[in-house]
């Protein structure tokens, strides 16, 4: 079986792993790099629990062949916080009681981070669209949408404060 | 910031007086939230083990069939396959999860023996080095069948000429000699005779999936002292341990369950479906074994919320008092009992809903059909019954031109009322939630209805 | 095309716990050397927040800060028995067990403190910030870390407690169904407002007004999580969900993924307005009742009744799909 060595950046750190044919980015992250934040909820690309950022864009990592990410820049939930300092989205989820079982949370956070990176002032509809591929079975979504809008406001306030 | 719903202090003022709580009643942060937002919360599948083996299942494609032969030779020769398990490898293959509380019979095989009675029933388990090899091995199992007629309707299953699909001899769970869990309270026929109006309608539902974002699964790790450590997302650690020990015929002290952090349950993770086979596989291979449902298995093979069919016949006086309610309720348990006999009893205890009705007759059937076994799910026995009861209430109110809330308030149960299962009601508050909801939406209630109270005995208030 | 609006009502009760064979849960609490209190359980948190709410029960009863409470749960080697997380039993059963264990541990803690302060234990109180102090003389006090150290290394006492809550078994009488299966009842009333598209049959749930009577709100933000998340599931059950779309006639067309198994996404959720009432249960932990399951129930009939109010179609089979709405409208026109 041909094994490919994949070099990439994960959360800003150079990493490498050996990819067998058929291995997905999700399994490489979880089983080879020890980054278990991204979850396997369906392995069909339909629940969003495995969402990570691939060169800044949200992808369902369970559908990304591991061999295709050589040279890529991957961001996962483990890289969001700066030491103890949570990102605005993380803090807003925490403060807003936007988590229950927590299984969808890492994927939700990554979809939200991607949205705010490209659109710092989203409407509720834009938030709804951004997380439309992320299934949550516990919360009813409303606290998640509120938390993302809250995070956007926090980020804008921070940017204003530094200008 | 977190949304908090207002607590109305004007209701049950005396009873709810709080004696100087410091922590209770305050919004303290969730202790698990930091782990959730940083991705550090450890779910069962977040543990990795060297040499981990994977277990996958070959399942029945038929609703009902005799198994003529099973050929596992191709599966065994599949590269990466370590072991193939059939029912012969399961020490106590027939089980029922409720035997722990004395409910029998043991009606379900862990792996099918001479027949399958639902599509998706497990027949052979394949253990392999990788998930892919286990799936490949499972696909290479060859089973030949003789198909039998399937029973897919609860009332057809109950009819005398239906093929019997259960080895116990009836297509329904037997409740101490009865074909249903029954409620007999007052004289329902006398109630109908006295009624000014009689309404008789039917309600039904289709099966519903729990759809937790994390599928059911476990990893079983053989320990150096010979014990088995089970990392599981079960909703009930000891329930899983005890049932697993009985199935694999090991001392309960040989097993240890670790869990407690679950990606959603909703009742779908109390059936003990994955742990016994993973334990057997771990023992036979002496390797850690993971058995986790695919999303497809979770949706079509794991127990759903039971479909139900409910007939409600009500006798009502012209002033809106319900004087008789007769209910025929059918829970579609699917092929095996699991928790459904319990669910039908829960339904019986719930009837006739939160209303005080002097004459109640209910037959709650737990019926077997050739479909995926149903089991516990959030509110089972109650959720679908509430759909039926509250639809019925709306229809009667409209038929008699009564205000829908006044009609409910008139019949609402109160402290001191004797419920149909002969338990005296206490701590009731149906009247108050209706009154407060009416206020919330500006639905005006006459003074007579605003003055009602759950704590005022029925006789003292008209 | 016309968008038809309607309002529907439903009111329900829901039992806390469901027992036939005896329904227990246990808790064990012990103090660590520096005054941490470990609550050991085998109970499972499904995401509803059990770990948090039982920590609150422990902190309140012990009279110590939340930070001093450690929840250690769901290891069958260390945690005492719990029946499991289902039947809206977790907060009620485990909360009660934790309170009982905490009372026993508190008694030892106060006795150790009394011996250190050379006062009578009956004259002591906790202040909730970590001190045990003399009633009426708050300057006479000792911190729980000093109490724990004294217990361990000086007095040789184990600050610990055992708790169990058992709902005793109740077998139904076969002939009549007489039984005592539950511990208390919570209540809910839902008013749903829907819009029905008479061309597509699509039902949109616009708003839900809910009142819930839950005994005692132990953690108000987590109450909001449970009631609103549960009401969402009710909406989902009502208008979307089934593993067998053509039940019972056909077993075919069963969904196998989240593209086929439909649930309301964030753009399809109603605005929820909820009000909480408290009628504490005499047997509940601080009066709390179990509400985890109930919250999904009232929305379903409320939506069915609202659909009828909107368009005159009485749907008696769940879920209320566009197809069933359109067939109902056709039948009305034909009549």
UniProtKB/TrEMBL annotation, chain A:
Keyword rRNA-binding: no
Domain 2Fe-2S ferredoxin-type: 4-80
UniProt keyword annotations, A-Z: 2Fe-2S, Iron, Iron-sulfur, Metal-binding, Oxidoreductase
SUPFAM superfamilies tied to this protein: 2Fe-2S ferredoxin-like, CO dehydrogenase ISP C-domain like
Pfam families noted in UniProt: Fer2, Fer2_2
InterPro entries: 2Fe-2S-bd (IPR002888), 2Fe-2S-bd_dom_sf (IPR036884), 2Fe-2S_ferredoxin-like_sf (IPR036010), 2Fe-2S_ferredoxin-type (IPR001041), 2Fe2S_fd_BS (IPR006058), Beta-grasp_dom_sf (IPR012675), Diverse_Oxidoreductases (IPR051452)
Domain of life: Bacteria
Alphabetical list of PANTHER family matching this protein: OXIDOREDUCTASE WITH IRON-SULFUR SUBUNIT, XANTHINE DEHYDROGENASE IRON-SULFUR-BINDING SUBUNIT XDHC-RELATED
This protein's name: Ferredoxin
UniProtKB/TrEMBL annotation, chain B:
Source organism superkingdom: Bacteria
Statement: the UniProt record of this protein carries the keyword Ubl conjugation: no
Pfam hit, one: Ald_Xan_dh_C
The UniProt record lists the keyword Nucleus: no
Keywords per UniProt: Molybdenum, Oxidoreductase
Family matches, as InterPro entries: Ald_Oxase/Xan_DH_a/b, Ald_Oxase/Xan_DH_a/b_sf, Ald_Oxase/xanthine_DH-like, AldOxase/xan_DH_MoCoBD1, AldOxase/xan_DH_Mopterin-bd_sf
Domain called Aldehyde oxidase/xanthine dehydrogenase a/b hammerhead: residue spans: 38-149
Protein name: Dehydrogenase
Source organism (scientific name): Asanoa iriomotensis
Automatic annotation (TrEMBL), chain C:
Top-level division of the source organism's lineage: Bacteria
InterPro entries associated with the record: AldOxase/xan_DH_MoCoBD2, AldOxase/xan_DH_Mopterin-bd_sf, N-heterocyclic_Hydroxylase
Domain Aldehyde oxidase/xanthine dehydrogenase second molybdopterin binding: 4-270
Xref: SUPFAM superfamilies: Molybdenum cofactor-binding domain
Protein name: Aldehyde oxidase
Organism: Asanoa iriomotensis
Lineage of source species: Bacteria, Bacillati, Actinomycetota, Actinomycetes, Micromonosporales
């Amino acid at each position: 079986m041909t094994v490919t060595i994949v070099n990439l950046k994960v959360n800003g750190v150079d990493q490498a792993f050996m990819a067998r044919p058929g291995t997905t980015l999700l399994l490489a992250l979880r089983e080879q790099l020890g980054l278990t934040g991204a979850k396997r909820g369906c392995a069909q690309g339909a629940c969003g629990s495995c969402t990570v950022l691939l060169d800044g864009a949200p992808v369902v990592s369970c559908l990304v062949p591991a061999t295709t990410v050589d040279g890529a820049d991957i961001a996962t939930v483990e890289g969001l916080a700066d030491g103890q300092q949570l990102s605005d989205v993380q803090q807003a989820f925490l403060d807003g009681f936007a988590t229950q079982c927590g299984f969808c949370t890492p994927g939700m956070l990554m979809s939200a981070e991607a949205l705010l990176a490209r659109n710092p002032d989203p409407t509720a509809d834009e938030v709804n669209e951004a997380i439309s591929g992320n299934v949550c079975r516990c919360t009813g979504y409303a606290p998640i949408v509120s938390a993302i809008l809250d995070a956007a406001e926090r980020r804008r306030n921070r940017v204003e404060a530094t200008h | 910031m977190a949304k908090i719903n207002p607590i109305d202090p004007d209701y049950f003022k005396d009873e709810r007086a709080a004696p100087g709580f410091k922590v209770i009643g305050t919004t303290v942060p969730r202790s698990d939230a930091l782990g959730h937002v940083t991705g550090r919360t450890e779910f069962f599948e977040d543990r990795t083990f060297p040499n981990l083996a994977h277990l996958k299942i070959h399942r029945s494609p038929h609703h009902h069939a005799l198994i003529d032969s099973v050929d596992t030779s191709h599966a065994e020769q599949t590269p990466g396959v370590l072991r193939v398990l059939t029912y012969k490898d399961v020490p106590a293959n027939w089980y029922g999860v409720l035997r722990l509380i004395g409910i029998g019979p043991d009606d379900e095989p862990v792996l099918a023996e001479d027949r399958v009675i639902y599509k998706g029933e497990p027949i052979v388990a394949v253990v392999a080095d990788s998930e892919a090899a286990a799936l490949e091995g499972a696909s290479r199992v060859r089973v030949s069948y003789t198909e039998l007629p399937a029973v897919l309707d609860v009332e057809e299953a109950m009819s005398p000429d239906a093929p019997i699909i259960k080895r116990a001899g009836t297509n329904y769970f037997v409740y101490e000699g009865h074909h249903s869990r029954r409620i007999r309270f007052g004289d329902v026929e006398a109630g109908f005779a006295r009624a000014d109006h009689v309404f008789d309608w039917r309600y039904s539902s289709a099966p519903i999936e729990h759809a937790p974002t994390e599928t059911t699964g476990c990893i079983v790790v053989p320990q150096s002292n010979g014990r088995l450590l089970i990392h599981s997302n079960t909703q009930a650690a000891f329930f899983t341990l005890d049932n697993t020990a009985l199935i694999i015929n090991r001392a309960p002290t040989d097993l240890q369950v670790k869990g407690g952090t679950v990606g959603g349950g909703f009742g779908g993770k109390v059936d003990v479906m994955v742990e016994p086979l993973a334990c057997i596989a771990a023992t036979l291979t002496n390797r850690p074994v993971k058995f986790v449902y695919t999303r497809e298995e979770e949706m079509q093979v794991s127990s759903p919320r039971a479909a139900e069919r409910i007939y409600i016949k009500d006798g009502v006086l012209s002033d809106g008092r319900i004087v008789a309610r007769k209910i025929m309720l059918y829970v579609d348990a699917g092929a095996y009992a699991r928790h459904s006999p319990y669910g039908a009893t829960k339904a019986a205890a719930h009837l006739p809903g939160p209303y005080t009705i002097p004459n109640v007759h209910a037959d709650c059937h737990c019926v077997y059909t050739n479909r995926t076994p149903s089991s516990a799910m959030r509110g089972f026995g109650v959720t679908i019954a509430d759909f039926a009861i509250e639809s019925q209430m709306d229809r009667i109110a409209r038929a008699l031109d009564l205000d829908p809330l006044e009609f409910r308030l008139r019949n609402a149960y109160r402290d001191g009322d004797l419920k149909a299962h002969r338990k005296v009601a206490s701590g009731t508050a149906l009247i108050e939630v209706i009154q407060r909801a009416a206020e919330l939406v500006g639905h005006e209630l006459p003074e007579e209805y605003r003055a009602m109270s759950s704590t005022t005995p029925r006789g003292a208030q008209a | 095309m016309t968008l038809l609006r309607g309002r529907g009502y439903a009111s329900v009760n829901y039992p806390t716990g469901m027992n036939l064979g005896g329904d227990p849960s246990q808790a064990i609490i012990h103090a660590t050397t520096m005054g941490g209190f470990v609550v050991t359980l085998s109970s499972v948190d499904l995401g509803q927040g059990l770990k948090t709410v039982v920590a609150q029960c422990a902190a309140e009863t012990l009279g110590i800060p939340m930070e001093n409470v450690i929840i250690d749960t769901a290891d069958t080697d260390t945690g005492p028995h719990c029946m499991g997380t289902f039947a809206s039993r977790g907060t009620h059963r485990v909360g009660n067990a934790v309170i009982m264990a905490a009372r026993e541990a508190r008694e030892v803690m106060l006795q150790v403190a009394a011996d250190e302060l050379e006062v009578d234990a009956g004259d002591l109180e906790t202040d909730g910030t970590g001190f045990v102090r003399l009633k009426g003389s708050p300057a006479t006090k000792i911190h729980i870390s000093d109490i724990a150290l004294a217990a361990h290394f000086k007095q040789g006492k184990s600050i610990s407690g055992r708790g169990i809550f058992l709902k005793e078994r109740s077998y139904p009488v076969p002939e009549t169904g007489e039984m005592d299966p539950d511990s208390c009842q919570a209540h809910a009333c839902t008013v749903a407002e829907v819009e029905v598209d008479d061309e597509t049959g699509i039902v949109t749930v616009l708003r839900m007004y809910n009142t819930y009577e839950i005994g005692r709100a132990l953690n108000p933000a987590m109450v909001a999580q449970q009631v609103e998340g549960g009401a969402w599931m009710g909406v989902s059950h009502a208008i979307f969900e089934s593993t067998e779309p053509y039940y019972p006639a056909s077993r075919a067309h069963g969904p196998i993924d989240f593209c086929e198994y439909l649930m309301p996404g964030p753009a399809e959720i109603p605005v929820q307005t909820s009000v909480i009432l408290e009628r504490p249960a005499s047997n509940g932990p601080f009066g709390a009742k179990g509400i985890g399951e109930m919250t999904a129930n009232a929305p379903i009939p409320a939506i069915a009744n609202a659909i009828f109010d909107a368009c005159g179609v009485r749907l008696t089979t769940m879920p209320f799909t566009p197809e069933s709405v359109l067939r109902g409208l056709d039948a009305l026109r034909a009549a």
